[in-house]
Amino acid sequence: MSVYRFKSRETGDLVMLKQHGKRLLEILGKDPSGPGVVMHQQMPAAIQAIRDAIVLEEAEQKKLREEAAARGDVPPEFDQVSLRMRSAPFIEMMQRCEKAAVDIVWGV
Fold first, then answer.
1. Domain residue spans in the chain?
2. DSSP 8-state code for residue 79
3. pLDDT tens-digit map of 33-58
4. What burial letters (b/e) apply to 17-44, b meaning 16+ CB within 10 Å?
5. N or C: which end of the chain has fewer CB within 10 A?
6. Rounded to whole angstroms, how far apart are CA atoms 60 and 75?
7. Residues β-bridged to residue 21
8. Residues ≥6 apart with Cβ < 8 Å to 58
9. Strands (DSSP E) along 1-99, which ranges?
10. Contact between 2 and 100 (Cβ < 8 Å)
């Protein structure tokens, strides 16, 4: 699978490159190797898990920049599209699906 296509009856499909979709699924504790589902009852916890991962990523990047600055090194470069930006459409999809009591599936 070169992309993940997340589907629901409430929203249009959300397509992500494999590496980004896989990371989000791993954050959610889902198996990214095959088809799966995020049930609408799981969405509040799933959204919080992604938000927690965003906070951790941003804190780690800040720490690495500060350490580089303290050593006088060039600050490290990170992916220009952060987890916060990449996950925003998925979080929005989950919020809408939770409200409508609709599940999200992929790989089917």
1. 3-50+83-106
2. -
3. 989 999 999 999 999 999 999 999 99
4. eeebbbbbbebbebebeeebebebebbe
5. C
6. 13
7. none
8. 82, 84
9. 3-7, 14-17, 36-38
10. no
Contact indicator for 54, 84 with CB cutoff of 8 Å: yes
| Inter-residue contact 49 to 29 (CB < 8 Å) | yes
pTM tops 0.70, yes or no: yes
Three-state secondary structure call for residue 9: coil
d(CA 77, CA 100): 40
Query: Tens digits of per-residue pLDDT, 87-96?
Result: 999 999 999 9
CA distance 22 to 81: 16
* Residue 75 DSSP one-character state: P
For residues 36 and 106, the answer to whether their CB atoms sit within 8 Å is yes
Which residues touch 85 (CB under 8 Å, ≥6 apart)?
Answer: none
The distance from CA 98 to its chain's CA centroid, rounded to whole angstroms, is 16
Chain centre to alpha carbon of residue 71: 32
